[in-house]
Design brief:
single chain; alpha/beta; Rossmann fold; 2 domains; 7-stranded parallel sheet; 15 strands; about 15% strand; disordered N terminus
Length: about 425
């Protein structure tokens, strides 16, 4: 937790050695919640659940560092349901808890968990996000709900229409707060906060702690307790990282080779652009690999159908932009491919967080061309580790572009056109990507 100390000098820090529970019952949860947990097949809480749930039940503001796949949603959903149940008014339901998420997929996932965990508690939850008609969402709000899970834009739209009030809010939860800032939601978050009472419980969950997140937390949280499930910017222990150095024009062919020869049935591939996702998906289809693209330009109904098809095996490969790096709940996903490295190192952590979840093993493969060598360095620096790299015969990367400063010397070099010596994968890695 040393990275948090300059920021939380006056805050209470909970470490693993200070707290240890053996079961969900030890966390102080109600019988109704324990019944729902048991029905989902869980018996042992994860570290973030162990640390966060008792603190939230006590009414603390909490700043939580939690990667995807650590059980963080249950970490705030379970205590929120219990707190609301203790003072529920079923005759006049008001929105008393709000969960803000950066993407539609994450909002839908969080709503699903609130519904499952609250099935034996008299708590109603609604999810609202853009990309679909507002009518059904408004109809549910008018019936009265206790919890709203929302993306910022649609929330503000419905509030401006008089269909939603936050004047009775008791608990505010920011889920994937770092991603919300990355997507430019800071101003919307600030507008939303002005619509709710100043006195409330605040919970902020984030995978990373940038300067912007620290600033946001300081304006929202009051005497918070900071907890963490894993060190900042770490990846699941059972994820195997691998890099293949490849010529940019041969990435698609190498992708087809890996999937076909590996006989992979479920693969999530990340590209940097929407156009790139569409183009790659089309090329995979032409290679007899069932594929679909998911990104911000696709309608919500299309995204929902595509994700369902990927989960049930009808679609073999899902090609996505970083909008899908958070919020996709895909159990036991075995393979993630970075077709293009992200230009923000932290996004690598979020992308591969789709695999190796809940203790399962997974494989994260990155296809790296010469133009992405700086991105690779940044990722390795962030992870504080070298990622093993190799070159597959027939897919060798081209030589590094000539430095204009060397042109004059090269003209007088009689060996300037000589064929380079064959090198091992490790040596090539140093030559092409480490210099």
């Amino acid at each position: 937790m040393s990275y948090l100390r300059p920021f939380i000098k006056k805050w209470t820090i909970i470490t693993i050695s200070q707290i240890h529970y053996m079961s969900f019952k030890d966390l102080g949860l109600s019988e109704a919640l324990l019944k729902a947990i048991n029905q989902k097949g869980y018996d042992t809480p994860t570290p973030i659940q162990e640390k966060a749930i008792p603190l939230i039940l006590k009414g603390n503001d909490v700043l939580a560092s939690a990667q995807t796949g650590t059980g963080k949603t249950a970490g705030f959903a379970l205590p929120t349901i219990q707190l609301l149940s203790q003072s529920a008014n079923t005759y006049s339901r008001k929105v008393r808890a709000l969960v803000l998420t950066p993407t539609r997929e994450l909002a839908a996932q969080v709503h699903e968990e609130f519904t499952e965990y609250g099935q034996f508690s008299d708590i109603r939850a609604a999810v609202i996000f853009g990309g679909v008609k507002a009518g059904p969402q408004i109809a549910k709000l008018r019936k009265g709900v206790d919890v709203v899970i929302a993306t910022p834009g649609r929330l503000l739209d419905l509030h401006s229409q008089g269909e939603l009030s936050l004047s009775n809010l008791e608990i505010l939860i920011l889920d994937e707060a770092d991603r919300m800032l990355d997507m430019g939601f800071l101003r919307d978050i600030q507008r939303i906060m002005k619509l709710m009472p100043a006195k409330r419980q605040n919970l902020l969950f984030s995978a990373t702690f940038s300067k912007e997140i620290k600033t946001l937390a300081s304006t929202i949280l009051h005497n918070p307790v900071a907890v963490e499930a894993t060190p900042e910017n770490t990846t699941a222990e059972k994820v195997e990282h691998r890099v293949y150095f490849v010529d940019k024009g041969m990435k698609t062919s190498l992708t087809v080779k890996l999937i076909s020869e590996g006989n992979w049935d479920q693969v999530l591939i990340f590209t940097r652009t929407k156009h790139g996702a569409n183009r790659l998906s089309e090329k995979l289809e032409k290679s007899a690999i069932s594929s679909a693209a998911i990104h911000g330009n696709k309608s919500q109904n299309h995204r929902t159908r595509t994700l369902d098809g990927f989960k049930n095996g009808r679609i073999r490969v899902l090609v996505a932009t970083d909008i899908a790096a958070r919020g996709l709940d895909i159990p036991l996903l075995p393979h993630v491919i970075n077709y293009e490295l992200p230009n923000i190192a932290e996004d690598y952590v979020h992308r591969i967080g789709r695999t190796g979840r809940a203790g399962a093993s997974g494989e994260a493969i990155s296809l790296v061309n010469i133009d992405e060598k700086d991105y690779l360095r940044d990722i390795e620096k962030l992870l504080n580790q070298d990622i093993p790299g190799s070159i597959i015969e027939g897919f060798e990367p081209v030589d590094e572009p000539e430095d204009p400063k060397d042109k004059k010397n090269n003209r007088s070099n009689p060996n300037r056109n000589a064929k380079p010596k064959q090198q091992t994968g490790d040596n090539k890695k140093r030559k092409y990507y480490r210099n």
